[in-house]
Amino acid sequence: MSETRHNWTKEEILEIYNKPFMELLYEAATVHRLHHDPNVVQVSTLLSIKTGGCSEDCGYCPQAARYHTDIEGNDLMSVQQVKAQALRAKSTGSSRVCMGAAWRNVKDGEEFDQVLEMVRTINKLDMEVCCTLGMVTENQAKRLAEAGLYAYNHNLDSSEEYYKEVISTRGYQDRLDTIDNVRKTNVTVCSGGIIGMGESIEDRAGMLVALSTLNPQPESTPINALVAVEGTPLEDQKPVSIWDMVRMVATTRIVMPETQVRLSAGRTQMTREGQAMCFFAGANSIFAGDKLLTTPNPDVNEDMEMFAVLGMKPQKPFTKKVQPKTVEAAESQFEALGEKPKWTRPEHIIERNEAAKAKAKTLK
Ligand code: SF4
Known about the structure:
The protein has helices spanning 10-17, 21-35, 79-91, 110-123, 138-147, 160-163, 172-183, 201-212, 242-255, 272-280, 300-310, 351-363; strands at residues 40-50, 96-101, 128-132, 151-153, 188-190, 193-195, 220-225, 260-263, 283-288, 291-292, 295-296, 313-314. The protein has 364 residues and is α/β, with parallel strands linked by helices. The protein has a domain at 37-239 and 285-305: TIM Barrel, CATH 3.20.20.70. The strands form two sheets. Strands 1, 2, 3, 4, 5, 6, 7, 8, 9 and 12 form a ten-stranded parallel sheet that branches. The termini are far apart. Iron/sulfur cluster is lined by residues 54, 56, 58, 61, 63-64, 102, 104, 134.
């Protein structure tokens, strides 16, 4: 079995990415088969539990309050609403619910307590629970773990260099520190990024260096193709070609052999044949449901039809790791510390972000 390495260099990764296509595909498929059942795909449902109104300036995101997009903002959902959605997701083959809140970072208080209750509720439905809530402190990560959280998502987005061309309101190190805080618990790490934001192939390799040299490597890595939303700074980016997507998936599979590589945003732009090529290249997870936070996604029935065509089946929950135990709020060992961590705000000027913000002002 090929070993998991934590010392990949950018040059080595570039060499893999740029191999002749068929060789790359064959090598990735070989690594994939050594570590995973090639006919099993993990299915996650992404649920936006709090939408829009975000203070950050991520250039790809329609939820940033400073840009003018036509998404509908929502306050935090109730625990009952989340439970109903989770049951629906379970009935259509999802093993995991990933709850996303458009927050810069988690703040102790009523809303976080409500999220902890959502985690407890979904874990008791025997589904894997993942959250993506922004930056978290060690104490907050421990409280999530105690509630029964299975995974925490915090994407690196791109290489450290290109990240600065997309986001100015927080730093790359904050992302790594959040992953580090999650690693102090038993919660698994989900971290990946987006291609098609105007980055170079070197930046893609740079992101894979950052992810693959984490020790342990993330248990899951979403590879998103940018969905260019009108009103965001990246609205004019051209769609990612399927060839780039397959190369990125295959390279991720080779440098992170144990990781579940997830096809995430941008699947609506791919044909079934294109997605099949991604599965052959080592993708073994998808997001299901007709929406990915705020952008469109294939219908769940279409996905199940695709699975039938390909002879694939959804992965059962807790296949890779045992189900965490849920500790009720009344028995918690951890209390809200009300910390005020100093997450950075580099605030450098990104011209296209400024232009999108200025345009939004004229439209409001
Ligand atoms: S990606 Fe997350 S942090 Fe960035 S603007 Fe969107 S919701 Fe906010």
